[in-house]
């Protein structure tokens, strides 16, 4: 288990280091293609840009699709302001309160990458008498470029234009006590877990009873990541996404969360029951929860019309869509639940 855990953590860090806000995911997809091939699989890139991989298995007519997503929150340049600052529009559920004072990269289409910081407009407390009372939203936020520009023309001369991607620094750190802290653990932590499971099957020479596919999607944060590319024979979609940690919920960062219901409705009753039974049988540290504000790739598949059972599990993650935190024990419990359920 230690070797697989170390591999998962290595992959999580590698994936987190690749900027991939929704709509700008080619680089992380390139990395994932190469990693699956390195393990010994033959991944396919979907037209949308996701990665679909056949892990093998004996029963192709009762197949399971594991899904995680590698698109993240971010922003897009919506306007170059007269003072040389950038107005932005959020990608996904990026919250202005969590973006304030964060370092970021402006990825131009044709002229490289520039650095900057997301700030409240007029961000100096010693100058702005309304700093404390200003409600944070992207109408009052701006990107301050780390370049000597002070007008629209100067910014344009750099090759920056409307529609450019803004990627925020993940600030990834793994502590000695096993906590994993970073932006975008939702859902790159789960992508690392799926890579670990794929490697485990290959190295152990296991041919599961059911055919297993993995789909790393790239539009989950805007709701349609798992709405396509479901292979023939799939009877079950199991999303592996972050488990919610917060007020009124049972899950902690060191556990695997099994979601019974989220804002989209209940998950398949029988599948949830089977996952709970496996977690109990294998003495895993787990929690069952109802998430108040959540949607998953598995639900996107159902809304697209696929006739499948659907479920959702994931390592507990605190402070979702902010500076997130999980724990290596949550990673282990999630991996072991996949292993126990699927073989």
Can you walk through the features of this model?
27% of the residues lie in helices and 31% in strands. It is an alpha+beta fold. The protein has helices spanning 2-16, 26-39, 96-99, 152-157, 185-204, 269-281, 297-303, 328-342, and strands at 44-45, 51-56, 59-69, 74-80, 86-91, 103-107, 113-120, 141-145, 165-168, 173-174, 179-182, 210-217, 234-240, 243-245, 256-262, 265-266, 286-290, 309-318, 324-327. The protein contains eight helices and 19 strands. The mean pLDDT is 97. The strands form three sheets. Strands 1, 2, 3, 12, 13, 14, 15, 16, 17 and 18 form a ten-stranded mixed sheet that branches.
Sum up the structure in keywords.
single chain; 343 residues; alpha+beta; 10-stranded mixed beta sheet; 6-stranded antiparallel beta sheet; 8 helices; 31% strand; globular
**Termini gap:** 15 Å
* Rg (CA only): 21 Å
What's the helical proportion of residues? 25-40%
- Give the oligomer, counting copies of the same chain as homo and different chains as hetero: single chain
**Number of separate strands:** 19
What is the general shape? globular
What fraction of the residues are assigned to beta strands by DSSP? 25-35%
Regions with pLDDT < 50 over 5+ consecutive residues?
none
Let me know the average pLDDT. Answer: 97
Class from helix and strand fractions: alpha+beta
- SSE pattern, N- to C-terminal: HHEEEEEHEEEHEEEHEEEEEHEHEEH
Main beta-sheet annotation: 10 strands, mixed
- Distinct helical segment count: 8
